[in-house]
Design brief:
The chain has two domains: 89 residues, Udp-n-acetylmuramoylalanyl-d-glutamate--2,6- Diaminopimelate Ligase, Chain: A, domain 1 (3-Layer(aba) Sandwich), CATH 3.40.1390.10; 218 residues, UDP N-Acetylglucosamine Acyltransferase, domain 1, CATH 2.160.10. Strands 8-10-13-16-19-24-27-29-32-35-37-38 form a twelve-stranded mixed beta sheet, with helices on one face. The chain has a ten-stranded parallel beta sheet with strand order 9-11-14-17-20-25-28-30-33-36, with no helix packed on it. The termini are far apart. A hairpin with a 4-residue loop joins strand 37 and strand 38. By secondary structure, the chain is α/β, with parallel strands linked by helices. The chain is built from five helices and 38 strands.
Length: 350
C-alpha cells in the first residue's frame, strides 16, 4: 500500500493548516531537518534548529503558530505543537504496528494458579509467570519476561523482552516496561553488626500507577515495608536508579542516569534532567525542574528550576557554577596580590 499523501491531506492528518504550498503536491516520506530529501516532510520542534531548517531539502515542514520565516518553495503546515503533530506523520509513514496476538507460546512457563483470560492476553516465548499473578485484558508479555508470584498487572500493559517484575508488585493500566528493567529489586539496606554488613529484610512492594513508562535497564527497588510508588503518567528513562520507599507524584519526567535515594518524595510534574542525584528522605515540591547534574542535599519547597551542587535556584546556582569555574584564576590573582602586598610591606619597613 502506498504511503504517498498530498499536502492538504497531510495537514488534515496532523491537525494543522496548510498556509503555504500546493495542496495537491505529494509527500512520500519523512525525515529529520538535516537528512530530509525532496518529497519528504520534516518539522521544527525547537528554535535552535532554525538555521538548519533554512537549508533543509524537505518539501514540507510542520511549523508552530509563531513561525514567520520565508521558506520559498516549501509547503508549510502550521500546527500548535510540531513535535507532537509529527507523531501522526510517523504513524502514517512508519512501519505498521504489530497486531495484538493473544495466546500463550508453548515454551512459556505459566503457573496454573495465574489468573487471566488466555484469549485476551499475549504471553511470548520463555516467559515465566508465577503463582497468583493477575493479568488484565489486552496486556502483552514478550519473550523471557519473568513475573514473580502475586504480581498484579492491569489492562493494556506492554512488558518488553527480558524485563523482570518481582514478587507482589503492582502495575496499573497501560504501563510499559522496557527490556532489561527490574521492578521490585531489593532495597539497598544493611546494618553493620559485629564487623559485617547484615542485610535488612525488604518486604514491601513497588506500585506503578496508570500510564507509567519505564525505559531500559532501570531499577526500581521494592520498599523495605510499604511501597515504592510511581505516580500516574510518570515517564522514566533508561538507566535510572530509584531507591526503596521513593514516592513520585503524577506526570513526572525522570531522565537517564538519575539516582534517587531511599524515601525521597517528589511532587507532581517534577522534571529531573540527566545525572541528577537526590539524597534520601528529601522532599521535592511539585513543578520543580532539576537541571542536569544537579545534586539535591536539602528539601526543595518552592516550584522552579534548580541547578548546581548543592542544588540552588537557577540564577544562584549558575553564579555558583560560574564562580567555581573561575576559582583557578581567582587563586592566581590572590597570589599575585599577596606578592604585591608583601613587596609594599617590605618597602614600608625599609
Amino acid at each position: 500500500m502506498s504511503h504517498h499523501i498530498t499536502h492538504q491531506r497531510l495537514a488534515e492528518l496532523v491537525g494543522g493548516e496548510l498556509v503555504q504550498g500546493d495542496p495537491e503536491a505529494v509527500v512520500t516520506g519523512l525525515n529529520s531537518i538535516a537528512e530530509a530529501a525532496p518529497g519528504e516532510v520534516t518539522f521544527l520542534g525547537n528554535p535552535r534548529y532554525l538555521t538548519a531548517l533554512k537549508s533543509t531539502r524537505a518539501t514540507a515542514i510542520l511549523v508552530g503558530p509563531d513561525f514567520s520565516e520565508p521558506m520559498e518553495g516549501r509547503a508549510l503546515i502550521r500546527v500548535s505543537n510540531p513535535t507532537f503533530a509529527f507523531s501522526s506523520a510517523i504513524r502514517h509513514f512508519g512501519p505498521p504496528a504489530r497486531d495484538f496476538m493473544p495466546g500463550i507460546h508453548p515454551s512459556a512457563v505459566v503457573s496454573p494458579k495465574a489468573v487471566f483470560d488466555p484469549q485476551k492476553v499475549s504471553i511470548g516465548p520463555a516467559a515465566v509467570i508465577g503463582d497468583d499473578v493477575h493479568i488484565g485484558d489486552g496486556t502483552t508479555i514478550q519473550a523471557s519476561v519473568c513475573i514473580g508470584h502475586g504480581v498484579r498487572i492491569g489492562e493494556d500493559c506492554l512488558l518488553h523482552a527480558n524485563c523482570t517484575i518481582a514478587d507482589r508488585c503492582v502495575l496499573g493500566n497501560r504501563v510499559t516496561i522496557h527490556s532489561g528493567t527490574t521492578v521490585g529489586s531489593d532495597g539497598f539496606g544493611y546494618e553493620f553488626v559485629k564487623g559485617r554488613h547484615v542485610k535488612i529484610e525488604q518486604v514491601g512492594i513497588v506500585q506503578l500507577d496508570d500510564d507509567v513508562e519505564v525505559g531500559a535497564c532501570t531499577s526500581i527497588d521494592r520498599a523495605r515495608f510499604g511501597r515504592t510508588w510511581i505516580g500516574a503518567g510518570t515517564k522514566i528513562d533508561n538507566q535510572v536508579q530509584i531507591g526503596h520507599n521513593v514516592v513520585t507524584g503524577k506526570h513526572c519526567i525522570i531522565v537517564s542516569h538519575v539516582a534517587i535515594a531511599g524515601s525521597a518524595r517528589l511532587g507532581d510534574y517534577v522534571t529531573i534532567a540527566g545525572q541528577v542525584g537526590i539524597g534520601g528522605h528529601l522532599e521535592i515540591a511539585s513543578q520543580v525542574t532539576l537541571l542536569a547534574r544537579a545534586g539535591v542535599t536539602k528539601n526543595i519547597t518552592e516550584p522552579g528550576a534548580y541547578t548546581g551542587f548543592p542544588a540552588k535556584p537557577l540564577m544562584e546556582g549558575r553564579r555558583m557554577v560560574a564562580a567555581h569555574a573561575r576559582m583557578p584564576e581567582a587563586l592566581d590573582k590572590i597570589k599575585e596580590l599577596e606578592k604585591r602586598l608583601a613587596a609594599l610591606e617590605a618597602r614600608g619597613n625599609a
